[in-house]
TrEMBL record:
Protein's UniProt name: RND family efflux transporter MFP subunit
Family named by the database record: Belongs to the membrane fusion protein (MFP) (TC 8.A.1) family.
Sections of the chain in a coiled coil: 99-129
Entry keyword set: Coiled coil, Signal
Every YknX-like C-terminal permuted SH3-like domain range: 284-351
Length: 357
């Protein structure tokens, strides 16, 4: 009988030596498998949302202007950012010329009163002498007309005095409502004219969100719907729809939805923010955000397969809320999903399951 050749014998020996090494490597790989947590998707009732974006703007602005002209500003009592109350003094104008005109008008009233007193005396005497014929009819008519003229003159002078008092009151410019001053053009020493804007303020410090939405959602948006705004500093702001704009832009096919913010929330106006308007609720199959793995712009999750191995499954995502993501397609309610550590996994990796919820 022929003996095996030396190369064949060497191959048998090498295989016998490598077999324990392969088993050891396999056991090591099994021992170093990634430990993951798994859970089944949750069924939630989430509201359908309409994405929107727009500017935070004042609910209403008030313009504080001068009602008189030719007077100099003597005091500016507030500045930009000042919180003011209705009736609070903001600016004072010079009063010297107004007070002089007021005193002049008061003197004119005294003169008118004296003229009226004289005319009234002549008219009374004419009435008494009319039956006797001591005065001609022409003279009697003249005295009576003088009385009427003096009465009208006194009324005119009194009206002029009221006008001077109003002008004096207008030298003190006050806030028309509670609010916060957002701009100031009043400068100490400046001579103002009627209608000159001195301040601009946000009434009651109320800021609203003027959100632009696609016109196709308008039929489903109504007053009172809840709104969630992605506010500054990553703080969400809750609001409610106050008004749906009556027109649609012909350029963008978008409409403005006015969203009222809570009274205790006062973000800065002029910021551009995004958010969502909540419509009716509908079921949503959700997983934690940590379960979603992004690769090449595509969303995946890892699900439990056979023999403690995982499978990478492509999914379509939808709404997001409180750290959870809606799964629109790709898995069902019975799937077991890796909740964390998916970024370190590949398809068909061996894992150790730490917990299944």
């Amino acid at each position: 009988m022929r003996k095996p050749s030396r190369p064949v014998a060497a191959a048998f020996v090498a295989a016998a030596l490598l077999l324990p090494l392969r088993n050891a490597l396999a056991e090591q790989a099994a021992a170093t498998a990634l430990t993951v947590s798994m859970m089944t998707p949750a069924q939630r009732n989430w509201p359908e949302t309409v994405p929107a974006s727009g500017w935070l703007k004042p609910w209403q602005e008030a313009v504080i202007a001068s009602e008189t002209s030719g007077l100099r500003i003597t005091d500016v009592l507030v500045d930009v950012g000042s919180v003011v109350t209705k009736g609070q003094t903001l600016v004072r104008l010079s009063q010297e010329s107004v007070l002089a005109d007021l005193r002049k008008q008061e003197a004119a009233i005294e003169t008118a009163k004296a003229n009226l007193s004289k005319a009234k005396a002549n008219a009374d005497r004419a009435r008494q002498l009319r039956p006797s014929g001591a005065l001609s009819d022409e003279k009697i008519v003249e005295y009576l007309a003088d009385e009427q003229t003096a009465t009208a003159s006194l009324a005119s002078e009194q009206a002029a005095l009221d006008g001077e008092k109003i002008k004096l009151a207008q030298t003190t410019i006050t806030a028309v409502d509670d609010g916060i001053v957002t701009s100031r053009s009043a400068d100490l020493g400046a001579v103002v004219s009627a209608g000159t804007e001195l301040f601009r303020m946000v009434r009651q410090q109320r800021i609203e969100w003027q959100a632009e939405v696609s016109a196709r959602y308008l039929s489903r948006i109504s007053e009172g719907l809840n709104v969630k705004i992605n506010g500054p500093d990553d703080h969400d702001i809750e609001g409610k729809v106050r008004l749906v704009g009556p027109s649609v832009s012909t350029d963008t096919s978008r409409a403005i939805v006015y969203v009222a913010l809570p009274a205790d929330v006062r973000p800065r106006s002029g910021l551009y923010v995004t958010g969502n308007i909540e419509l009716q609720t509908s079921p949503a199959l959700t997983v934690p955000e940590t379960a979603i793995v992004f690769r090449d712009g595509i969303s995946y999750v890892f699900t439990a397969g056979e023999g403690q191995r995982v499978q990478r499954v492509r999914v379509e995502t939808g709404r997001r809320s409180n750290g959870e993501v809606e799964i629109v397609s790709g898995i069902d309610r019975s799937s077991k999903v890796v909740t964390s550590g998916g970024a370190f996994l590949s398809d068909n990796d061996l894992v150790k399951i730490a917990e299944t919820n």
